[in-house]
Design brief:
Radius of gyration: 31 Å
Structural class: mainly alpha
Shape: elongated
Largest sheet: none
Number of helices: 4
Order of helices and strands: HHHH
Distance between the termini: 97 Å
Low-confidence stretches: none
Length: 135
């Protein structure tokens, strides 16, 4: 026990001072946006599942107690659940946009506008070489 009279009267032990260990973070791992979006999506789904259980319990409590405060909390929880579902959809939309944009950058399907920088003689020579290869 400590010599502190409050601890002795309440029969408590003082909290030991634990040192905090600093962990180095690998910047290559987990820094990609798609990993972050996957983690955010997983966390949002977990929170939605927990919220569904809490919603059922709060709905039962509100019905049984008929307390206006319980109904107010129920409506707040419903609003939070709607926001969480919107967040899940926005995360999926963001992930889709990022993945599609990255695929388009890496693998273009078609080229609609192209620009040749060179002289006319160079262009004619390139066309002749291409025609000779095809023949």
């Amino acid at each position: 026990m400590s010599n502190d009279p409050i601890y002795e009267k309440l029969n408590l032990r003082p909290i030991s001072n634990k040192s905090i260990e600093i962990v180095s973070v690998d910047k290559q791992k987990g820094e990609q946006l798609s990993d972050d979006l996957d983690e955010a999506r997983t966390n949002t789904r977990h929170l939605i599942n927990v919220g569904e259980e809490a919603l059922k319990e709060l709905q039962d409590l509100s019905t049984q107690s008929q307390d206006p405060k319980a109904y107010r909390e129920l409506t707040v929880l419903i609003k939070v659940m709607l926001d969480a579902n919107k967040s899940l959809v926005e995360t999926a939309k963001t992930r889709k946009e990022i993945v599609i944009d990255n695929d388009k950058v890496q693998n273009p399907q078609s080229v609609t506008n192209n620009l040749y920088v060179g002289t006319t003689t160079d262009a004619v020579d390139l066309l002749r070489q291409k025609r000779e290869k095809n023949d």
